[in-house]
Amino acid sequence: MRAGATAAGVLGLLAGALLLNRHLGRRWGATGVEAGGPLPGDEVIADPIWQTTHAITIRAAPTEVWPWLVQMGITRGGWYLSERLDRLVWRIENPSVDRIVPELQRLAAGDVIPDSVNGTAHFRVVDLKPERALILHSRRHPATGVWPDLSGDDPSLYLDFSWAFVLRDLGDGTTRLLLRTRAAIMDGSTPAPAWMRVMLPLADFADFIYTRQMLRGIRRRVERACRSGAC
């Protein structure tokens, strides 16, 4: 009886941990309405097997937040992660910038944003609406991170995903910054086998760690700039 109760308790703790991981990983900082409603860029990955929506409130107007989004990217302004996470994930020593860089403020649809030092992994700008939304798209081989060449006979699985950074003016000098990720795992043009969905809890956890740091990094930089009189 005692062994059965212990096993039930362990299973209950595991179930609770999985539910918490799913909640934080899928919608850290976001309200139910924000997580469940449509956002610009949803059309890039029309039928995702995985979606997260994270959000943060920044004490600054959208005009002050937007320049920090425009200059993102490896070998550009960075992703505003901690130096430790930059070294762990990207193997780079150059930290994300703490200022607006004028030469990085030119960005247009079709531009490439590096996501690796050598540029083999990257995003393409699908659309941008100044001070409102920046929509990015990427495809990666899971092992190499390289954008796959779909013109040949490459049978490898690849990750097809989008990032949508959406700014909402709250009207009181603050901004709501939302980041939605939508992803599909593909094999050529055919969805991958269903068993690959078992990896999604790991993706939830990784997305929670990465995205929370990114959004907090943006907020910290914007608000610090405003306090110093740069806004």
Summarize the structure in words.
With 231 residues, the chain is of the alpha+beta class. It has one domain (15-227): 2-Layer Sandwich (Alpha-D-Glucose-1,6-Bisphosphate, Chain A, domain 4), CATH 3.30.530.20. Helix content is 33%, strand content 24%. The protein contains five helices and seven strands. It has helices at 2-27, 32-36, 62-70, 83-90, 200-227, and strands at 50-58, 112-114, 122-129, 133-140, 157-169, 175-187, 190-191. Strands 1, 2, 3, 4, 5, 6 and 7 form a seven-stranded antiparallel sheet that branches. Strand 5 (157-169) and strand 6 form a beta hairpin. The longest helix has 28 residues, at 200-227. The protein is globular, with a radius of gyration of 19 Å. The N and C termini lie far apart (65 Å). 30% of the residues are buried. Residues 4-23 have low confidence and may be disordered.
Can you summarize this structure?
This protein has 231 residues and is α+β, with helices and mostly antiparallel strands.
Q: Provide mean pLDDT, rounded.
A: 81
The total number of structural domains is 1
Largest sheet: 7 strands, antiparallel
- What is the CATH top level name? Alpha Beta
Looking at CATH, the homologous superfamily is: START domain
How many beta-strand segments? 7
- Radius of gyration based on Cα positions: 19 Å
Task: Please identify the structural class as seen in this structure.
Answer: alpha+beta
Cα distance spanning the termini: 65 Å
Strand content: 15-25%
State the low-pLDDT regions, or none.
Answer: 4-23
> How would you spell out the order of helices and strands?
HHEHHEEEEEEH
Q: Counting H and I runs of at least 4 residues, what is the number of helices?
A: 5
The percentage helix is 25-40%
